[in-house]
Specification:
alpha/beta, ABC transporter transmembrane region fold, six-stranded mixed sheet, four-stranded antiparallel sheet, 20 helices, transport, ABC1_TM_dom, membrane, transmembrane, cell membrane
């Protein structure tokens, strides 16, 4: 879609986003994980304390091989002696060493786990908050299952890196560096044998790690795709079952699962190759140490205790390398997940608020469409729409399916922006106002009412969470909902279930009207609010709508012409244009499309009291 021409300068989203300047597909492991460091800013003091505890714990552990060597020499070189003082002191030092190391290890484990949990909580909040700022266009182009997968599975993958993996990285790094230094200083010649495979080990880790990261990203994408298929099938399970399409959905989900399984196998093969290669190189180096060290002991150049100490240092270094190898795999997986998360965080809404918005505290409700055009991509949906609505007037929109009625009213709260022309509220372009403030003055009652899985009271208060109880009940009474709410098991505290499915269609619609009444909008949109109701429910809902419409600028879309006969203006739309306009009497006299629709409606009402014209059947895009 072409961006609408506008003279307004637009500010970037006010949401502080650590990924704003980061690449969407990081070229390196560090660039992929750097945004996490930005998110961890509030938790950095605890992180540094945890890192210090890890360094102390690892540093103390480096003294263990030296004391073990002394213990061996104290035992074997004083055979037959009754003086155990050296042995006793050495064991005492070992016990003290183990105690201190355990204390610092517990501290670093708790502190870094707390940092990880905090980072993940912050990341989830920011990601979800950012999703709520994106426009309907974004959600039309992305499957819900993929988005929830990034919010759950991908963030969960990152959690391991930001907690336990950080601790492991700190301890293993200290152990590796300290162990290498002690190996070299204690026996340089023997160290050559111990470290001969180190460059090769690092090279293998880098090369194979890149492959693991790439495949991890593929695996996460495949899992997200499978989740999206499952969510679509579950949310539309009635349609699935009514068309006996269980096998179709089972096959679609199965293909996604198999694709993720194949990606998991490829990742497992590369991980196994890395593990096996690293194990051989590591323990092969230890075999060389034992071979050369044993020859030095036999030649009298090295004591048994010194060889044991050196061997323990070599084992620590080998263990650190093996540990870092596993961490590389974990970080590579997290880098793939992080890339998907921050790719999402890098999305920006195409609907912007101006840098200096006009104040809209008490709008009058005068609405004007000035030669408005709108397109979905290259497909024109609206063209040449011009109309003027005075404060408090009611405008009804009728016409065949696909005429553009719902698209037209969706431009008012700026769910989409016009492609050409402009829409004014109180004499100013909608884009001159802050987006949230604009929407706070526009109420919407759709045909398919969306309730949330809380109680009745929370759903009525949805637009005003701080509204007092008296106003909630007053809104419910005005919406003809108070009496049936009191008959529910827990009254206003009754949980309505997911999407309000524990209530009937008429009950959900009246709660939606109460919600709109409590919000007290200046401009009201009624999108076929009664078309799916039976006659009894329709009468109650229509009475509530009449109260809701009083004194508000109202746009009504209806399939039943009887609901729009008293509108101040009736717009007849066809193929994205207004082809007729006027009052009910004027349009009947003029004939044309409105006359045809009215004639069909009257004939059907005489046969079957449905009031629905075949030409006005519902459609996903109107």
């Amino acid at each position: 879609m072409t961006r609408p021409s506008s003279t307004f300068s637009v500010a970037p989203s006010s949401e502080e986003d650590p990924a704003r300047h980061s690449p969407l597909r990081p070229a390196s492991l560090l660039s992929a994980l750097r945004p996490l460091w930005d998110i961890a800013r509030p938790h950095r003091p605890l992180f540094w304390l945890g890192l210090l505890a890890a360094l102390l714990s690892s540093g103390l552990n480096l003294a263990f091989p030296l004391l073990m060597g002394r213990l061996v020499d104290a035992s074997f070189l004083q055979v037959g002696s009754t003086d155990t003082a050296l042995l006793d002191r050495t064991v005492g030092l070992l016990l003290g060493l183990f105690a201190l190391s355990a204390i610092f290890a517990a501290a670093q484990s708790y502190l870094l786990a707390r940092v990880g949990a905090g980072v993940v909580a912050t990341l989830r909040e920011r990601l979800f908050g950012h999703l709520l700022t994106l426009s309907p266009r974004f959600f039309a182009e992305h499957r819900t299952g993929d988005l929830t997968s990034r919010l759950t599975a991908d963030v969960g993958t990152v959690q391991g890196v930001s907690s336990t993996a950080l601790a492991g990285l700190a301890t293993q790094t200290v152990t590796l560096i300290g162990g290498v230094i002690l190996l070299v200083t204690s026996n340089p010649r023997l160290s050559l044998y111990a470290l001969v495979g180190l460059p090769l080990i690092i090279g293998v880790a880098v090369v194979i790690g890149r492959q693991i990261r790439r495949i991890s990203r593929e695996f996460q994408d495949e899992v997200a795709g499978a989740n999206a298929s499952a969510e679509e099938a579950i949310s539309g399970v009635r349609v699935v079952q009514s068309f006996t399409a269980e096998d179709v959905e089972r096959g679609r989900y199965g293909r996604g699962v198999r694709a993720s399984f194949e990606a998991a196998l490829r990742r497992a093969r590369w991980q196994a190759l890395m593990g096996g290669t690293m194990s051989f190189l590591t323990f092969g180096s230890l075999a060389l140490v034992l071979w050369f060290g044993g020859r030095q002991v036999m030649a009298g150049d090295l004591t048994p205790g010194a060889l044991i100490a050196f061997l323990f240092y070599a084992i620590q270094v080998a263990g650190a390398i093996a540990g870092l190898t596993g961490l590389v795999n974990q970080f590579q997986e997290a880098a793939g997940a992080s890339g998907r998360i921050f790719e999402l965080m890098g999305e920006r809404s195409d609907l912007k608020s101006p840098v200096t918005p006009l104040e809209l505290s008490a709008p009058r409700g005068r609405v004007r469409f000035l030669d408005v055009g709108f397109s979905y991509g290259d497909s024109a949906v609206l063209s040449g729409i011009s109309l003027s609505v005075q404060p408090g007037q009611t405008v009804a929109l009728v016409g065949p399916s696909g005429a553009g009625k719902t698209t037209l009213v969706s431009l008012l709260p700026r769910f989409w922006d016009v492609t050409s022309g402009q829409i004014e509220l109180d004499g100013h372009d909608l884009r001159a106002y802050d987006l949230r403030q604009l929407r706070s003055h526009i109420g919407l009652v759709p045909q398919d009412t969306q309730l949330f899985s809380g109680n009745v009271r929370d759903n009525i208060r949805y637009g005003r969470p701080d509204a007092p109880e008296s106003e909630v009940e007053a809104a419910a009474q005005a919406a003809n909902a108070h009496d049936f709410i009191l008959e529910l098991p827990q009254g206003y505290d009754t949980v309505v279930g997911e999407r309000g499915l524990r209530l009937s269609g008429g009950q959900r619609q009246r709660i939606a009207i109460a919600r709109a009444l409590l919000k007290d909008p200046r401009v009201l949109i009624l999108d076929e609010a009664t078309s799916a109701l039976d006659n009894q429910s329709e009468a109650l809902v229509q009475a509530a709508l009449d109260r809701l419409m009083q004194g508000r600028t109202t746009f009504v879309i209806a399939h039943r012409l009887s609901t729009v006969q008293h509108a101040d203006q009736i717009l007849v739309m066809d193929q994205g244009q207004i082809v007729q306009r006027g009052t009910h009497a004027e349009l009947l006299e003029a004939g044309g499309l409105y006359g045809e629709l009215h004639r069909t409606w009257a004939e059907q009402q005489g046969q079957v009291d449905t009031g629905v014209s075949p030409q006005l059947a519902s459609s996903p895009v109107r």
